[in-house]
Amino acid sequence: MNTLFKSSKVRLIGTLLASSVLAGCASFSADGGFGSVEKTTKDRIGKDVQWSRSGEDQNTIDKRVAELLKRPLSVDDAVQLALLNNKGLQASFYELGISEADLVQAGRLPNPRFSMLRARYEDEYKIEQAFTFNVFSLITMPLAQKVEERRFAQTQRQVTSEVLRLAADTRKAYYTAISAQQTAEYMAQVKDAAEAGAELGRRMAKVGNWSKLAQAKEQGFYADAVAQSARSRQAASASREQLTRLMGLWGQQLEYKLPERLPDLPKMASDLPDIESLAMEQRLDLQAIRLETEGLASNLGLTKATRFINVLELGPARVQEGLRSEPYKKGYEIGFELPIFDWGSAKVSKAESIYMQALNRAGEMAVNARSEVRESYQAYRTSYDIAKHYRDEIVPLKKRISEENQLRYNGMLLSVFDLLADARSQISTVNGYIEALRDFWLAQADLDMALIGKPSSSNVPASMGAVAANEGGGH
User: Fold this and answer.
1) Domain interval for residue 148
2) 3-class DSSP state for residue 415?
3) What is the pLDDT of residue 318?
4) How many CB atoms lie within 10 A of CB 18?
5) Among candidate residues 165, 150, 164, 166, the one with its CA nearest the CA of residue 37
6) What's the pTM value of the predicted model, to 2 decimals?
7) Quick check: 444 and 269 in contact, CB under 8 A?
8) Residue, of 134 and 39, whose pLDDT is higher
9) How distant, in Å, are the alpha carbons of 50, 56, 65, 296, 393 from that of 87?
10) How many Å apart are CA 475 and CA 419, to the nearest integer?
11) Which of 67, 139, 155, 222 could form a disulfide with 99 if both were Cys (CB 3.0 to 4.6 A apart)?
């Protein structure tokens, strides 16, 4: 018995030593897995991200934010501000810490267990002592580690997707804010011109040179222009606040400056014939769900391997019976569950169903990704064509008409009210071009996002083109 105990004890000590070596390998990485997020962000959009995990990190971020706010913000500046300063993004970085903790925990064995029984009757004692170790955890640890490694890699891709999505949303908010600001400034000019026309009409009607109907039309146009100017100011304020939230700004930082107008339309639209295959290679959401499916497949193998035995504990034990002076009887203790009532079939069936569910969701996501990138590219090309048509055809034509009317007015062939009526007819054209240019840059941001992840839904503000419907009743 002693020989058997010594032999088993030696083997157990060897197992424990090997286990302690393996457990020692399970440690936290220096960067918490953030290096992968940082590199992918730099490679995909050329921007920096920083995880604020200390006061020193936050000071570095604050200094960079202050530098960017010293000048009027470009779209790249706005995106960089959001990636550094958005607290929601900083919160998502801690998903890496949670996931890595699970990975490290999967590589560490549970603590050994000590149990003791002590009973006494008069001078007779019964003492049982056992020191056991969960051997089954050691057997399943490599599989469990692989599952958590895949989950950690999946978390890295999900966090990276959050970074890129925030960048795309910030781009869209930036262009929306500038277009709303541009529209508000233009509508303020329209209101001023309408006010001048209404005042002129009032004076002419007062001296009897104009009918009350004509004067009422001018007054009506001015009233509509006042309302539309107020709406445009509200739209500009709301869109600026949306951009402010994404960039995480507050206090004195709210005084940031934006350019006065949207960027010009590019000379040519991008031609992407292999856009679907490009998206299949690059999209992080597809990579993440692929890792999830592989992890579930591995987990299914782990479930099948553990369907009969969930706990297997082994360790040395000693027992004393009789008088307290009697020697201990030495041996070992083994404990495990017996599959009498539960043979693990339900657990395996659940794991198989979860795996097949993920497999079909991965297929759905691949189909949707192809559709999303096609839709985004079509919207990009269409918005480019519309904006180009405004720039090259509609706006120059309206300009020529305005110049001709100005010449006729100078030659006293048109009245000032005819000139004002022509100016009113240009309002829908100007607003239409601002909207078309804005829609192109929004579509560009959506296309860029569709190539690397799921694009966010467009939040295009209400069109100001409807102003023309209220302005057609001029003189």
Assistant:
1) 2-471
2) coil
3) 59
4) 11
5) 164
6) 0.77
7) no
8) 39
9) 12, 16, 13, 32, 45
10) 10
11) 155
C-alpha 84/C-alpha 219 separation (Å) is 50
Q: Which amino acid is at 44?
A: R
Which residues, 6+ apart, have CB-to-CB distance to 6 below 8 Å?
none
Q: Which of the residue ranges 40-49, 249-258, 311-320, 404-413 would you say has the lowest mean pLDDT?
A: 311-320
How many other C-beta atoms lie within 10 A of the C-beta of residue 251?
6
Determine the length of the chain: 475
Classify burial at 162, counting beta carbons within 10 Å of its beta carbon; exposed 0-12, middle 13-18, buried 19 or more. buried
Task: Convert 104-120 to b/e letters by CB count within 10 Å (16 or more is b).
Answer: bebbbbeeeeeeeeeee
What pLDDT does residue 339 have? 55
Q: Mind listing the pLDDT tens digit for each residue in 6-20?
A: 454 445 545 544 554
**Neighbour-count burial for 122-156, b at 16+ CB within 10 Å, e otherwise:** eeebebbbbbbbbbbbbebbebbbbbbbbbbbbbb
Number of domains in the chain: 1
- How crowded is residue 7: how many other Cβ atoms within 10 Å of its Cβ? 10
Model confidence pLDDT, tens digit, residues 413-431: 666 666 666 667 778 888 8
Residue 85 one-letter amino acid: N
The enclosing domain of 74 has a CATH number of 1.20.1600.10
Percent of the chain with pLDDT strictly greater than 90: 32
What three-state secondary structure class fits 132? strand
